[in-house]
Description:
- By secondary structure, the protein is mostly helical.
- It is built from 9 helices and no strands.
Amino acid sequence: MPKITDENLVARYLAGDKKSLEILIKKYLKPIFNFCYYYTSNEADAEDITQEVFVKIWKNLQKFDQAKSFSTWLFAITKNTALDFLKKKKNVPFSAYTEEEEKIFFDSLIDRSPLPDKLCEQAETKRNLDTKLGLLPLKYRKVINLRYRFDLSFSEISKRLNEPLNTVKSRYRRGVIMLKKIYQKT
């Protein structure tokens, strides 16, 4: 199964393949919700913001610059949507804040996105991992990719690969062991 990038899925969606948007939403639903929950510390608010984010993505996908990273664009929209939500929700004069609330407010202004050197380091780590994964036999690599890149459960992987659940779990465990050995050699 060839790896389909987010940008390829966007291009497919814009060309008329509606299923591609579904794939993107399924891939990012949990990470976007977690990101929103981090900002709000409230499950219902995080769900509302997540829904709003995906509506914005759907409405504005044709404006996405396909030469850039989809995930960066998506998380920028998510961050802005979460901050807008918090501004609307807390329409309180600044003088009414307690010291603790001021601290929370100022902490919310901090840009928690990774710095460029951290992004480069993460990209290098990803390339290194991709190289090492490429050394695994295909049957193990498939399971590990579906588990981590697409955030699928073992039962979902089992259905997708049309393999027994225990076979999938076994291949995952063996693949991880092989990967550890590859890392230890380098």
